[in-house]
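Box 4.2: Ligand-aware structure prediction
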Amino acid sequence: MNRTCIGCRAVSAPEGLVRLVAGPEGELLFDLAGRAFGRGAWLHPEPSCLMQAARGGADRAFRQAFGIVPSQFFQLFRDAAERRALGLIGAARRAKKLEAGSSAVAEAIERGFAELVIVATDARAAASQAFLEPWIASGRAQAFGTKASFGACLGRTDTALLAVTEPRFASEIRKAIEWTSLPEPKAPSARAARSISSEVG
Ligand SMILES: [Zn+2]
């Protein structure tokens, strides 16, 4: 069933939208896995749609004043994206679609199984290894997380490199990682604000 984006009001298939729910304490939560209970609203994971949702779209959709400013709303989304990416990494590991550690990742690359390589952001040494160069140069390796966050979701310490070996997991994880840095649109410039006020005035 198609849904209306609470940002731009366009109607889309659910695959192109993310779900927002009002939690039990009246707080807003992004439900990026699409499984949370509660009344939901939908929006495009696009900066302009998040901005419109933050500026009243969410309040109208839930008939509730959340008292949230755009920067908080964007941070909620980025935090949810980070949890989603780590959750998918754990799920890929359990499904045996993820290799962890330098030698296992190097082997997956060499044998052509790697779909996505993830380098912990606190692992400069790992990122400089020769077998990663073409992956980093072509943008197929993504920097995300920390050795500690990988350790927590994989149950092993000192893991700086991951390779996802299945295309669907790879594309979902890549999307979630990109969302962790979704930019908040800049406030209108002084010039734009002037032209708006001259239209109104
Ligand atoms: Zn939208």
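In the box above, the bound molecule is zinc ion. The mean pLDDT is 90.
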